[in-house]
Amino acid sequence: MKRAFITGIEGQDGSYLAELLLAKNYEVHGLYRRSTNGGSPNLKHLRANPLVFQKTLFLYPADLDEVDSIRVPLEKAAPDEIYHLASQSHVGQSFEKVEETCRVTGLGTLRLLELARQLPRPARFFHASSSEIFGSPEQSPQDENTPVNPITPYGCAKAFGTQLTKIYRKNFGLFAVNGILFNHESPRRGENFVTRKICRAVAAIKAGRQKELVLGDTSAQRDWGNARDYVRGLWLTLQHETPEDFVFATGKLNRVQDIVEIAFRAVELDWRQYVRQEAALFRAADPRQVVGNPAKAKQLLGWEPTITFEQTIVEMTRAELSA
Ligand code: NAP
Ligand code: F7E
Asked: How many A from CA of 131 to the centre of ligand 2?
């Protein structure tokens, strides 16, 4: 039985990855943020399952800011594979919490790499990097060789972690890889990301509990995939024979406006009656033309996205309606 260690296990990706690994017969050890006290709905079903919880799934409160809170469970888990997913992951908030974002997302990655290097039995290490490391790139689509040039504090913190992951691979011989992840969504997405914000609002408007939906720049474009596809990709990177970085993306651009139209269409309402933009919600800097080329992941890992953008938005809207 393989053992995996996941930071950020209660987040969107952490919870799907835990399910995937348990289904593959792994023993899974995960860190959740101590200050939120294991309150996320994403893992509730696994915590409540007596066949799984404390049998093959073990959870520990921790903070990436406190190295001992990571060291003790990591040494106890003695993992074969480490998936480092914990992060202050909101780009907009990174402008208000610059120092915290760099500490948690940047230095937190350094702390974990250093602990991984000191483990008596080597473990394979995955770092959740981001398309935000590219900033507003001149080359489109982006791939593993696109220059790193972040324009947001979050992107800068991820660039630091990405580069250190490469350094630990090249200089310390760690099997350490970056998955350069483009946006990916699901009903478990945090509520302040644009897809979930829109789908929640549309369901609330349909139910008569909300009157309008206020957004920032609805012309903004992203390469949006589905989280379940992407966690399969993360796992594949650590099964590959050599440690290499991989882009995970769909290669397709859509607008925030497209999310609005799909979600309102799913509940048979006319978006024009409910949506307005507000300048205060526009970001100081917002990457443009961020679209990935996943050819390397397809060629070497056999990875391809299977769930479309439209399917994801409809699934998210329906999940909000039934919640
Ligand atoms: P997420 O839902 O925000 O999950 C991140 C988790 O990290 C949360 O459970 C959070 O706990 C935890 N965390 C935050 N600060 C922490 C701290 N100081 N100590 C310990 N844990 C802490 O993010 P996700 O969407 O699953 O993404 C997974 C990873 O991929 C992240 O590193 C993200 O930056 C990266 N990524 C995501 C995307 C995407 O589109 N989803 C794209 C590119 C890269 P709380 O629940 O208590 O906040
Ligand atoms: O914004 C625009 C916003 O916050 C998407 C994270 O997972 O992906 C994610 O970061 C776009 C941006 O995600 C609103 O300006 C308009 O252009 O959903 P988001 P993000 O910033 O792309 C990257 C790859 C990560 O690594 C991150 O961890 O939508 N937008 N109006 C809005 N965004 C929000 N949140 N709220 C609005 O009202």
From this structure: 12
- Do residues 30 and 6 touch, judged by C-beta distance below 8 A? yes
User: What separation in Å is there between the alpha carbon of 167 and the centre of ligand 2?
Assistant: 29
User: What are 16-52's pLDDT values in tens digits?
Assistant: 999 999 999 999 999 999 887 777 899 999 999 999 9
Give the whole-angstrom CA distance, residue 222 versus residue 256. 8
Pocket residues for ligand 2 (CB within 6 Å)?
89, 91-92, 130-132, 182-183, 192-194, 197, 215-217, 220, 222, 256, 281, 283, 286
pTM: 0.98
**DSSP per-residue string spanning 212-274:** -EEES-TT-EE--EEHHHHHHHHHHHHHSSS---EEE--S--EEHHHHHHHHHHHTT--GGGT
pLDDT tens for each residue of 102-132: 999 999 999 999 999 999 999 999 999 999 9
Alpha-helix runs per DSSP H in the chain = 12-23, 44-47, 67-77, 91-94, 98-101, 108-118, 153-172, 194-206, 227-239, 256-266, 295-296, 309-322
Structural domains of the chain in order of their starting residue, each with its CATH number: 3-184+226-248 (3.40.50.720), 190-222+253-290+306-322 (3.90.25.10)
DSSP state of 54: T
Catalytic residue among 130, 131, 168, 230: 130
Ligand 1 centre distance from Cα of residue 211 (Å): 30
DSSP line for 83-99: EE------HHHHTT-HH
Residues of the chain short of pLDDT 50, as ranges, are: none
